[in-house]
Each structure stands twice: as C-alpha cells, then as structure tokens.
Specification:
Blueprint: H1 2-26, E1 42-48, H2 52-61, E2 70-77, E3 82-86, E4 98-102, H3 106-143
Antiparallel strand pairs: 1-2, 3-4
Length: 144
Amino acid sequence: MQAMEISMSGLDVEWQRLQVIAQNIANVNTSRTADGGVYRPLTLVSGPKVSFSEVMNQRASTASPSMQGVTVYGVEAQNQGTRRVYEPAHPHADADGFVTYPELDHAAEMTNMIKTSRAYEANLVALNISMQMYSRALDIGKQQ
C-alpha cells in the first residue's frame, strides 16, 4: 500500500502548492495587507518526509526501505521587490501619487500553476494505477 500513500502525499502537497499560487495571483494588485505592508508573494517549500540518509540506513538494516512520500516544510515569503504605479486618486497613494504593489511575475505564476496541476494529475494517475494493481492482486488471490 506504500504506492497509494506516496501518491496521496503528492496529491496533498500539490494541492497546497496550487492554493499558494492562487493566493499569489489573487493578490497581484493588492496595495496593502492587513498589517499595512505590501503583499509578499509566497512559495511552498516541500520535500521528502524521510531524509535520504534515513532511507539509506533503513536499506542497510532491512531488505526494503520504508518510503514515506513527500510533505510540506512550510510557506515562505519571497523577496521580489515592489512596483510603483502612478495612481494619485488611489487611497493608498503616497505624497507623489504612487501606489506600491508587489512585483509578481504573472506569467511565471501561471507557468507554476500549469506545472503543479500536471504533477497533481500524475499523482492521481499513479494512485489509480496502484489501486488497480492491488485490486487485480486481490482478484488473483481469490482465484487460487
């Protein structure tokens, strides 16, 4: 059942990554956050649940190492800077009439969204295939 657990952990991580990307895109024109600062785009940091050295130590002690899948380590704010737009009528405009917005690369965020959705789909396919394999193995076991 490890294949299903690994795929499910991948689905969870990619879903969370999609949520972070959507939040970044939604805040592309946010001039102020609740704390009064400029919105800083976020990045989801993920990786294996078990470190490589732990897997290698397990492999040395047992015939088959336990694979754990992936997990989210955290969400970090990016330091990409800001862009200033001349909008003197905006309520957040400074004395010179400029409003500060986050410097967010919309095309890069959309590209990340597509890559993440493809990774999500790949995990979904792997999950479905592993479920079919386990189901077929049960059918074979019943026949004997």
